[in-house]
Amino acid sequence: MENLISIFVNSVFVGNILLAYFLGMCSFLAVSKNLKTSLGLGIAVVFVLTITTPANWLIYRYLLAPGALAWAGLPEVDLSFLKLILFIAVIAGIVQMVEMVIDRYSQALYNALGVFLPLITVNCAVLGASLFMVERQYTFQETVVYGAGAGIGWMLAIVSMATIKMKLRYADVPEGLQGFGINMITTGLMAMAFMLFSGITM
Amino acid sequence: MSTAIVKITRTQTYRTVADALWQNNPISKQVLGICSSLAVTVQMNTAIVMALALTFVVAFSNLVISLMRKIIPRNIRIIVEVAVIATLVIIADEVLKAFMFNISKQLSVFVGLIITNCIVMGRAETCAMSNAPYPAFVDGLANGIGYGSVLVGVSFFRELLGAGKILGFAVVPQAFYDMGYMNMGLMLLAPGAFIVIGLFVWLEHALLKS
Known about the structure:
heterodimer, A: mainly alpha, 69% helix, 0% strand, B: mainly alpha, two-stranded antiparallel sheet, globular
């Protein structure tokens, strides 16, 4: 249990997928202009990460990892080189399915998240989380916690960025730094703030 | 001599290359794809390998997709493009694992993440789908190099200021350290990359204005 809590805290703060590993920057910079949309996108990312990361874990564990096909009588087969192409296909497939399911059962949720779901397929944070999960050799429970934590960390970062940008409108930024430059430096300062949590040990 | 240069500068290939390397390579545009690889800019050698891997993928994915552009049905083109890109990334990843194992360990998941890099997908979509193979290949090559140059530029400052080294060789003399000079640890951490990029953009705005 402590192990799970520590994975969660680490993936939200110190190992924040956006601020420490630079993943998911495109949508972070493009969509953080207003608070409401960034919250919507954030929730959609949490949702998708929590589903796709464990799904990819199952696929890796039972199809791709060295020796994973032992249940089919093929213990020597190692298909792990296929993980990139299969993970991206799984992510695209699941995002499409999630979109259809919520369209059918919850119109309100679809109206809130619908526009963001196709964007998420190409969000590198989603593929990144699956690849990190393989590299760090998480168990299934750890993977579920890590997927959710990575999503929440990403949401926290984009929501804070949106609010900071609202304040920045009234700031007197040097001319050459306006727009993209100041956004990067703000993100850098945010990354520094998130690193302060590295003192927490469980 | 000068006529030769004029001849070169007038070709379509030259214009494609120059455009991607200079006029159309403001960091703020390329950076869309750069962000996901900022994590490998702590050292110059990983950044250079990453730049080469990306150049390979973007050039050949442009070539392959351009060769197939007439037989790809319009409504499934994204899937075909992703499949081509993913195949090339797997090749690059396996080659790195076979011949540069240590660097491939350091690059970890970031080679795999070339698949979701906006530049590769963007070039396939906007250039390769509507151009003949040769111009598409040159375009991919030039965009890869333009992207790589920013990546290597960032890593130069991070390694120099953060570790006092360039490509692993110590360049800050010991005498400096004796006098009290210290490496800037911040540059080795994630915030350093964001701040360097922000300052790069500032510099670029200043240069382009004058």
